[in-house]
Amino acid sequence: MNGGSATKMECHLIKKKNVSNNMRYKNKILVLLVLTAFVISGVAAVKAPQQKERNLKVLPKDISDEKLDSIMQTYNKALGVKCEFCHVKKKVYPGDIDYASDAEPKKEKAREMMRMTIDINQKYFPYQPGERPEYLNTITCKTCHRGETFPPED
Question: How many angstroms separate the CA atoms of 78 and 125, rounded?
C-alpha cells in the first residue's frame, strides 16, 4: 500500500510542478507582451522627421537641404549677416527661425537680388545647358557687397 500512496504523492508533486511551469511560461508570455506593447507605443509616439516648411520662390523647389544651406551660408558671408537678417523668429518658439515666413521685407529684397544675379549670370556668362542658372557663381552677392550688409556706393 505504501507504494500506491507514494505514487499518489509523486503524481501530486508532478502536477504541482507542471502548474508551476505553466505559470512561469504564462508570466514570460505576459512580460513579453507588455514589453512589445511598450516598444510599439514608443515607436508610434515618435514622429517621423518632417521636412522643413519651405517657401522657395527663386531657388528650385527640389533643391536639397544641403545645397540650400550651402547657398544661404554664402549669402551670410557675402553680406556679413546672420539668418535673422532676412528671416523672422517663430512666435511660439522665439529661439527658432521661421524660414518660410515672408514677414521680413528684407527677404523679398533678397529675392530681387537673387533674381538679378541669376539674370546677369544667365545673360552674360556661358554655362552648360543642363546646368541650373541658379547655381552659377560668376557674379555673386559678394561681388558687390564684399562682406557688407549694404554694398558700398562707389
Answer: 21
Read off the pLDDT band of 109 (50, 70, 90): very high
104 and 87 in contact (C-beta within 8 Å)?
Answer: yes
Could you state, in order of their start, the residue ranges of all structural domains in the chain? 1-46, 65-145
Strand partners, 89: 97
- C-alpha 124/C-alpha 80 separation (Å) is 27
Quote the Cα angle for 132-138-141, to 5°: 95
CB count within 10 Å of CB 110 equals 20
Inform me whether the pLDDT recorded for 12 exceeds 80.
no
Alpha-carbon dihedral sign for residues 64, 65, 66, 67: positive
DSSP class per residue in 41-54: HHHHHSPPPPPPP-
Residue 144 burial by Cβ neighbours in a 10 Å radius (0-12, 13-18, 19+): middle
Is the pTM here over 0.85, yes or no?
no
Mean pLDDT for all residues in the chain: 83
